[in-house]
């Protein structure tokens, strides 16, 4: 019989350097909670995907999500492993997040939000 070691969080290797979760939730424009889709997320996330691909870095990825619970703040995205939430509004905001944070490892402070639970 062999003993199995207990893994800690620091023992588990990172798969990706950065993993972006972007909310694609679409509700009708009159829905009381709003949605990232109704706030114009789709073209931003399409650009985000293309910009990430253009970096050529296979260790930076984006995953489309449903509602992340902060609908009024949309469009929103969160970057892991840092757990940083961003609220981009323009294609240029997306470009800056990709270049500065995803590739460069530095926060884009003016776009950071702290969602309230």
TrEMBL record:
GO terms for molecular function: iron-sulfur cluster binding; metal ion binding. Keywords: Iron, Iron-sulfur, Metal-binding. The keyword Metal-binding applies. Its cofactor is FMN. This is Ferredoxin.
């Amino acid at each position: 019989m062999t003993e199995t070691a207990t893994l800690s969080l620091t023992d588990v290797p990172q798969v990706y350097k950065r993993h972006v979760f972007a909310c694609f939730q679409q509700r009708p424009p009159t829905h009381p909670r709003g949605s990232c889709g109704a706030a114009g997320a789709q073209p931003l996330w399409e650009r985000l995907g293309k910009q990430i691909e253009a970096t050529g870095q296979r260790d930076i990825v984006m995953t489309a999500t449903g509602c992340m619970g902060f609908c009024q703040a949309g469009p929103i995205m969160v970057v892991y492993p840092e757990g940083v939430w961003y609220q981009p509004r323009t294609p240029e905001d997306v470009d800056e997040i990709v270049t500065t944070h995803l590739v460069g490892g530095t926060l884009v402070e003016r776009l950071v939000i702290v969602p309230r639970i």
